[in-house]
Amino acid sequence: MQDCLFCKMAAGDIPVSKVYEDDTVLAFHDIDPQAPVHFLVIPKTHIASPGGITPENSAVVAHIFEVIARLAEDLELGNGYRVVTNCGRDGGQSVPHLHFHVLAKRSLAWPPG
């Protein structure tokens, strides 16, 4: 999608502080971190939100969680971490491209704010 911020990041048109990249996903540090470790993982193909996941594109979500598990091990997040995705404006989604926040290295309260 031409006007999508995260699509531009995935294409390399906008620089990011990269944590991980492969042919399918990109992980990068959040520009406004809410925890000592805070990065996002996005599919390189445009999916607008969790509501846009279909049988045809759902494999990318499984791959994203495999990447998160690998990064959690590499970054030694054994004490715990949180994976968050928002759906729609009322759900707190600020960029209309499926993305997962990974937050760690501090105690995370429940319920979230």
Can you walk through the features of this model?
The chain has one domain: HIT-like (HIT family, subunit A, 2-Layer Sandwich). The protein has two helices and five strands; from the N terminus they run αβββαββ. Helices cover 19% and strands 22% of the residues. The model has no long low-confidence stretch (mean pLDDT 95). It has 113 residues and is of the alpha+beta class. It has a five-stranded antiparallel β-sheet with strand order 1-2-3-5-4, with helices on one face. A hairpin with a 7-residue loop joins strand 2 and strand 3. It is globular, with a radius of gyration of 14 Å. This is HIT domain-containing protein. GO terms for molecular function: hydrolase activity.
Strand order of the largest sheet: 1-2-3-5-4
Largest sheet: 5 strands, antiparallel
N-to-C SSE string, H for helix and E for strand: HEEEHEE
Poorly predicted runs of 5 or more residues: none
Number of helices: 2
Q: What is the count of structural domains?
A: 1
- Number of DSSP strands? 5
Q: Identify the overall geometry.
A: globular
Beta-strand level of the residues, as a percent range? 15-25%
CATH architecture: 2-Layer Sandwich
Structural class designation: alpha+beta
CATH superfamily: HIT-like
The CATH topology is given as HIT family, subunit A
Helix content: 10-25%
The first-level CATH class is given as: Alpha Beta
Q: End-to-end span in angstroms? A: 31 Å
Radius of gyration: 14 Å
The overall average pLDDT, rounded, is: 95
